[in-house]
Amino acid sequence: QVQLVESGGGLVQPGGSLRLSCTASSLDYSGIGWFRQAPGKEREGVACASSKFDMIYYADSVAGRFTISRDNAKNTVSLQMNSLNPEDSAVYYCAADPHLVAQELCVIGADYWGKGTLVTVSS
Q1: Using DSSP, how many helices (H) and how many strands (E) does the chain show?
Q2: Which neighbouring-strand residues pair with 44?
Q3: Most buried residue among 69, 84, 88, 96 by CB atoms closer than 10 A?
Q4: pLDDT tens-digit profile of 27-86?
Q5: Residues 10/121, Cβ–Cβ less than 8 Å
């Protein structure tokens, strides 16, 4: 079991940037990533990677704007979000899985989930 805690959400203006962080209780997973869910919409895997970060997947909706990265020394995975627009508003979740990585993780989902952090893009 891996515990995940997100931080960094908040209110940002359109065109702005925000950085989310996810602290994991251990590195005992194969894949880790970020998902989001807006009210009335399905959950979307936006950025997912293998634990070694040799495989990285981005959803088309965020490619070129979002970057997932890691700091193993701190057991932290971050999501840098640039050029935000109101459609990016959602609760963002960090998730990890013992088997799934990168695109399959983003598409199928994960075993371990954080509680989420709210991102609101509005003027």
Answers
A1: 1, 11
A2: 36
A3: 96
A4: 899 999 999 999 999 999 999 999 999 999 999 999 999 999 998 777 899 999 999 999
A5: no
DSSP state of 25: S
Burial class (CB in 10 A: 0-12, 13-18, 19+), 21: middle
- Cα distances (Å, whole numbers) of residue 2 to 30, 32, 39, 105: 11, 11, 27, 16
> How does strand 44-50 pair with strand 112-113?
unpaired
Show the CA angle centred on residue 46, arms to residues 42 and 51, nearest 5°. 125
Q: Spell out where the chain has E strands.
A: 4-7, 10-12, 18-24, 31-37, 44-50, 56-58, 66-71, 76-81, 90-97, 112-113, 117-121
